[in-house]
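Structure ticket #2291
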Amino acid sequence: MSRIGRKQIEIPANVKVQLTDQAITVTGPQGTLSMPLRPDVRVKWDEAEKAITVSIDEADAENRIVRACWGTTRANIQNMVEGVTKGYEKTMEVVGVGWTPSLAGSRLKLVVGYANPIMMDIPKGLKVTVEKNFVKIAGPDKRMVGQFAAEMRAKRKPEPYNGKGIKYTTEVIKKKAGKTFGA
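Resolution: structure written out below.
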C-alpha cells in the first residue's frame, strides 16, 4: 500500500479546488494549475474538512502501476497546492569570463562562449529575472520551473577543469586536476 497516497492533502483557506471526473483544477494567489486524473485513481474533495483524499479500489491493490499512480497523483496534487500558494523558484549561475545572461523581451539571451548567443523562449507562467550572473526562475508549476532550469543548464553544462558553465547555485562542481608535464 502507498504510504504517501494515504495521506490527506490539507487545503489552505485562500485556495479553491474544482474537481471533475477527468481533471482537478487548483486556483490560488500565484495562479491556476490543472492536471488530468487517471480513471483507476479516485480523488475526493471534502469541502467541510478542506482536504483532498486520494484512493484506489481494493481490487487494484495488487497492481503495481495503479499503486505507483496512487502515490504520484497525491504528490502532484500536493505540489499544485504548494505552487499556487507559495510558488517555486530555482536560481541558476552562469560562470565564465565574459559569459552573461540577459533578458531580451520574452526571451533569455545567454552568451556562453559560442560564436552566437543562445536565445531561449521563456514559457508563459514563468517569471525570469537576471541579476549579474544569476538567473532566477519562478512560477507556480514545479515541473515547468524545473524543466526550464534543466534546459538552461543543458546549453552549457559545467565542466570539472575550470568550473565554467551554467549551474544551479546549490550545485557543487568537483574540480579535477589537469594534465601534468615533466618530471
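Closing remark: The longest strand covers residues 88-95.
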